[in-house]
Design goal:
Radius of gyration: 19 Å
Number of helices: 8
Largest sheet: 6 strands, mixed
CATH superfamily of the domain at 7-86 and 156-233: P-loop containing nucleotide triphosphate hydrolases
CATH architecture of the domain at 7-86 and 156-233: 3-Layer(aba) Sandwich
Strand order of the largest sheet: 6-7-8-3-9-10
Structural class: alpha/beta
Number of strands: 10
Bound molecules: adenosine-5'-triphosphate, magnesium ion
């Protein structure tokens, strides 16, 4: 594993096929920071997390971990990363324990340490009673918790979590963020969410993507005291206030 360092995106441009998806994204995240990434559907949150994980090569700009581009760091960078993809899934015939043991082993956790690490993350995410259950027999929320457990099983320095609270009940959502705060001090954590109040409660900093560009990057406290309103006020107004589609007030 590499020494902890800042994660830096500089002038990042990403295309998927011919479609430009991210444009001019620049962001520096230092060890110990928790960043919530907000933005409408299709604004590029998943693409940015995949790029930071080294899964999507930039068309222009670069991503560095410390001084070096992540492409040059190879497996060392991958082993420093915990990544929860949106809609986590894995081999359905594997049990929870087999899944976590397998993923710990390929992240090069020492074989003697694998059972203990697996027990720890199962305990942290309330999965101990499901250890010998196959993934196919889990509820959506339980499967999401396996996704979270696998992201942490090798104790990584950088956590990239794509909508980690999806499918979690409120109690589990609070437990997740408490765990991230208590168990992972000094880490870089970037998580995508559609919930401004979750961003305010769980992050130090908020980045908002609008059509592939950063339209806000600042302290999470700026979403206080009314996170939904503060978030919506930072979005381009066109869709919300179109003459043909007046904003609907739900409350
Ligand atoms: N494989 C692909 N090829 C072409 N375009 C893609 C591909 N995958 C995603 N896109 C487009 O890239 C844009 C950003 O998608 P992305 O999944 O990053 O958004 P998101 O902010 O994560 O959305 P959501 O909130 O729905 O998860 C969207 O317009 C999407 O249609
Ligand atoms: Mg997404």
């Amino acid at each position: 594993m590499l020494a902890p360092a800042s994660l830096v995106a500089e002038g990042l441009e990403v295309r998927l096929g011919r479609t430009p998806v991210l444009s001019g994204v620049s962001l520096t995240i230092t060890p110990g920071q928790t960043v919530a990434m907000l933005g409408p559907n299709g604004s590029g949150k998943t693409t940015l997390l995949r790029s930071l994980a080294g899964l999507v090569p930039p068309a222009a700009g670069q991503i560095r971990y410390g001084r070096r581009a992540i492409g040059q760091l190879g497996a060392g960078y991958r082993h420093s990363l915990g990544y929860l993809p949106q809609g986590f899934d894995f081999y359905h015939h594997f049990t929870v324990r087999q899944t976590l043991s397998y993923l710990a082993a390929i992240r090069l956790v020492h074989p003697a340490l694998v059972p203990g690490r697996v027990d720890q993350v199962m305990d942290a995410f309330g999965l101990t009673s499901k250890a010998d259950t196959r993934l196919t027999a889990l509820s959506l929320g339980e499967r999401q918790r396996v996704g979270l457990a696998q992201a942490l099983v090798h104790d990584p320095d950088v956590l990239l979590l794509d909508e980690p609270s999806s499918f979690l009940d409120p109690e589990e959502r609070v437990a997740l963020h408490t765990h991230l705060r208590v168990a992972t001090p000094g880490r870089i954590i970037i998580f995508a969410t559609h919930l401004p109040d979750e961003a305010l409660a769980a992050a130090d900093r908020v980045a908002i993507l609008c059509k592939g560009r950063l339209c806000y990057d600042g302290p999470a406290m700026a979403l206080s005291p009314d996170p939904d309103r503060a978030y919506l006020e930072r979005l381009p107004k066109a869709r919300l206030q179109s003459a043909n589609h007046p904003a609907v007030h739900l409350v």
